[in-house]
């Protein structure tokens, strides 16, 4: 308990850093995931190919390698940004591939006749997707998307190795001060538990309100 009390400001700064990473990377992942899912079911072949390549490359690339590519590779091309922003880009892009597949699986659960009926009424692809297909698919993808964002929160721990302020990285400072390493990690684990339970509770509420009836 003294570890937490004596180092509250360090823990709090790391906790807020992880929350900020999680929130912004989640928003980026949801937006990119939606766009890529739309590409993957689009009637335009080039868009489907782009969406497929995006998902295939990112899903099969280790997240640590992606961090190296973004944080160390992009500055070589003249793109110099704060490390935290680079971390958000790496986390968001990586997670977007999994969000995309969750959304696409939800879209595939919508009967094909729904889209055909919408097109027969004169709707274009964008209108059919946004007004007919996605509202129905959304109900079935709430649990998998929630699980994906929980994984994102835990994956944010990698950012600490790249000089980004986050919760796991606090152990270095606290360990140097001579505190018990076991209790240091216990309180770090509690911090991650708070974040993941908050995400889980949010998606549980969404599922109760809009999820598929069981």
Question: Could you give a short description of this structure?
Answer:
Helix content is 79%, strand content 0%. It has 214 residues and is mainly alpha-helical.
Strand content: under 5%
Main sheet characteristics: none
SSE ordering: HHHHHHHHH
The average pLDDT value, as a whole number, equals: 84
Global geometry: elongated
Overall number of strands = 0
Low-confidence stretches: none
> What is the CA-CA span between the terminal residues?
43 Å
Helix-residue proportion? over 70%
Helix tally equals 9
Tell me the structural class.
Answer: mainly alpha
Rg from Cα: 20 Å
Describe the structure.
This protein is 79% helix and 0% strand. It is elongated. 33% of the residues are buried.
Strand and helix map with partners:
Blueprint: H1 2-6, H2 8-40, H3 45-59, H4 63-73, H5 83-109, H6 112-120, H7 125-155, H8 170-176, H9 181-210
List keywords for this structure.
elongated, 214 residues, 0% strand, mainly alpha, 9 helices
